[in-house]
Amino acid sequence: MAQRYDAVIIGGGHNGLISAAYLARAGMRTLVLERRHVLGGAAVTEEIVPGFRFSVASYVVSLLRPEVIRELRLPEHGLDILPLDGTFTPLPAGSGAHTGGGDYLWRVNDHGRTVRELRRWSTSDAEAYEEYGQLMVEMARFIKPILGIVPGDPTDRDPRPLLPIAALARSFGRLTERQQAVFVQLMTMSAADFLDQWFETDPLKATMSASGIIGTYQGIRSPGTAYVLLHHYMGEIDGAFRAWGIPKGGTGGVSYAIARSAQALGAEIRTEAPVARIRTHGDRATGVVLADGEEIDASVVLSSADAKVTFLDLLAPGTLDASFEEEVRRFKFRGSSGKVNLAVDRLPDFTCLPGVGEHLRGAISFSPSMDDMERAYDDAKYGHWSRKPYIDMIIPTLVDPQMAPPGKHVISCFVQYAPYKLDPALGTWDDNREAFGDAVMDRIAEFAPNIRDITIGRQVLTPLDIERTMGLTEGNIFQGELSLEQLFFNRPVPGYARFRTPIRDLWLSGSSTHPGGGLMGANGRLAALEVLKSRGRKVA
Amino acid sequence: MTETTVFDAIVVGAGHNGLVTAAYLARAGRTVLVLEQRERVGGAADTSEIMPGVRVPTVAHTVGRLRPSVVRELDLKRHGLELIAPEVRAFAPQPDGRAVTLWRDVAETQASLRPWSENDARAYAPFDARVRGLAKFLADLGDEVPPDVREPGFGDALMGLRLGRTFRGLGRDDGRTILRVLAMSVADFVAESFESDAIRAALAWRGVRHTAMGPWSAGTTKVLLDDSAASDGGASGETVYATGGPGALAEALVSAVRAAGGEIRTGVEVVAVTSMDGRATGVALATGEEIGARAVVSGLDPKRLLTTLVDPVAIGPSLRWRANNIRTPGRSAKVNLVVDGLPGFPAAASDPRLLRGRILVGMTGIDQVERVFDATKYGTFADELVVEATIPSLVDPSLIAPSADGAHVLSADVQWVPTTPRDGTWDDRREALGDAVVRTLETVAPGLGGRVRARQVITPADLERDFGLTGGHPLHAEPALDSFFAWRPLLGWARYRMPLEGLYLAGSGAHPGGGVTGAPGRNAAREVLADLKRRR
Hints:
Chain A is an alpha/beta fold. Chain A has helices at about 15-25, 65-70, 110-120, 125-145, 165-175, 175-190, 190-195, 200-210, 230-235, 250-265, 305-315, 320-330, 370-380, 430-445, 450-455, 465-470, 520-540, and strands at about 5-10, 30-35, 45-50, 50-55, 80-85, 85-90, 105, 245, 270, 275-280, 285-290, 295-305, 335-345, 365, 390-395, 410-415, 455-460, 505-510. In chain A, about 35% of the residues lie in helices and about 20% in strands. In chain A, the strands form four sheets. In chain A, strands 1, 2, 9, 10, 11, 12 and 18 form a seven-stranded mixed sheet that branches. A seven-stranded mixed sheet of chain A has the order 7-6-14-15-16-13-17, with helices on both faces. In chain A, strands 3-4 form a two-stranded antiparallel ribbon. The interface between A and B is large, with 40 and 44 residues.
């Protein structure tokens, strides 16, 4: 006899757990099924080297929606975010004003200090920085509501779903002309072209533009990368909760806080319960079948797995019509990122600023020049991992010492680019894993030569590993590329951007949906609210 | 004021769009004066003699995107315009002797694709139909004045536009498709239909020509579809020559302007748009002369207009900052060769008709094309480039005088070269570029180099200096997604009216963009006439 739930949720990543919490809160009997032994999906903490705990994949929190934090009372359930301060960009020897050991560019939260630092490079950039920051905050304030909108279908003859967009259009009308123009630029330009309008300092532009390419298979000069620059500022305007930092206990700490909240609201969570397929009857979903054959009935099935896994792997072939399947196949994943996690017994020592200092407590960005950033992309475009990759390094133990044995540290290196599809001449990712890891170490060693000496354990995560371990197709950390044509009403498939699918009672709630990826939680919340709305209507 | 006449309109710049506007204004009974800095009219639509008895299409080499409405309404055929449209549209010979050939006829194209891939041959007809359907939408969009984003709400304007109807006219599938594909890279767009890399490259080419983007750049699908808008291009693209070269189009337009009473002066440099109280009053010439007009229409690029000709105080610092940031990364060059006989292309040996269209060289695959683009990101150019060549003398013998009998003209539109070389200047690098182009052509036409009798190399620096194109950009402003429709050239200033009352933009920097289309010139004329009428 199959067990019966009101809602079963496939995947215990942050979005799946958030959906579960909202559905349980509304009184639905809810079950979350997670394939792995550990919750969190890509927001997961694991002890990779004995005694050393890592945020294996996702490593910082900047976008987690304040309404999710508030409505699910996450702080009461253990969520604690520790602030990170600043971005430190080491430069190679012989460059910049500090010759010899090389210079650096160091921006911190203290605005005055950052402006003084920038003045060392360019007085006009120091001036522009202020104006730019102000403008970006205004832009972020304008765009933020879009994260809470369920995107209507513009080809729909029923205009009602488009009303929220009309509201957005009205607020667009209230912007000044310059703000409007800058907004359009943000939505269309490359990060590099956008920043060129304000700044001349090459390492500054390189480091700022780096945030535009995270998780994408695009370069800083590729059109469509500018808008991600906004993300950084969206976190900043949340005020009430410190939104830019690392979660205590790693990103798994966020997932478990959500899980505890969901459980407190009555949701059940099962780990090591992989779903083999979604059961359908006629045109509706009726439950799931687990890998061990167990059947679970549910009135609603919510999948937080990505669009490809949900539609092509979990549904029996022939369930969906061919043209829809074609659209799903068209949805681009193209994972481009890797992760290198290091266990170290001492801290790295940077040639340009030797010793232990505040500069190690924020993000350390290996982005010395625009050309370096773009060349890293050029390698990837033709199927090679970047020979001199861009690295975003964080040393979480400096703010959360419990992640490693006393005196020791963990280092998280987010690396781009690592294209999922390698040039066949290179072989597979299994053949390239260590070479890629070595390239990352070499790149770090250019600026912090002691890196190999201090490393006592290393985990290299390629896109293939991300796919295998976390079930993310092609290792795309956003469950589908955040390219312009895959956003908003086109995400994941035109006409199906509202969390609904062609199968009745089957819903999507992961990052494959609007508003895309990142440890944000908007998708899981909006999807759950849409489910509740649809059921509320039915009841009424 | 040294001149007492006040014209209804002065058109600055006698490029094809400036002339189109002038012709429309003159035909509506307005007094019009066109001022051109060069000694010749036509701008980039020019024919010049580079060797005694041999005339070449100096910059542009085909005119097939010219709006049929412009040809018809200005009666250009009566003014001497003769068009030649060969049955072959594009021929992409490969170094191994094979070729991708795109014909006017879809079935013939399919036959040429079949040896590459049966699937691709089959996919071509629906792809062509799709391109035509989507391009039709862009053609309709191209005839519209972009909505006013300042007064009504953005969404309201969009909804209210006839555009809404046109959009719905696309039907649900094409409607969804256009919203999805406009922002897409052309590499992805062609890959949705075709598997053969050479076919993908040949079809994608028009999405990147004259741009600073490679086929993997987002938004290049829009450029491709725009290229097919309002022409019979479809997926193969137009290939239409003007008899006598593109300069003949300029001559026909001049004839249309003069026949309607318009006046054209060449060799006249305009140094400023004069204004008073936020209103354009006329122009000032380098000679110190000032000429008054009720409307001043610029055929120049918007960056040049707003940053060099208009009083900075009148437009204010914010707009000036924006104008300064109009992107004009010219990455195109032109090389014209005179050869002592028809060059031998082994891939065309079976059928001499193949050389009558656009000859696409270096288009062996999407990534190979992208790599050529890559070099310019670092201020250099690749050893072998990507070239769209034509041999106009093959279809238009009038280009060769009897004294040069037997010679042929090979016109090479070249991508990608840096706007400014990182090491050195274009004066140092010009001949190296010419050599690279010849080397590129020799990959499919061996021995060509030995037959060159004259060579003209036009770099981005030359396009800027000799044709007044800022950054040497042949399209006046980069046709990327950040310069499109209601935000070309600048959001708030896309309705042909510039920030001074009575000042208009009619060139390629305005909607719907660059290329020899006459579309911005025609739309601008409509707006100028409406305003002139309103104010009287």
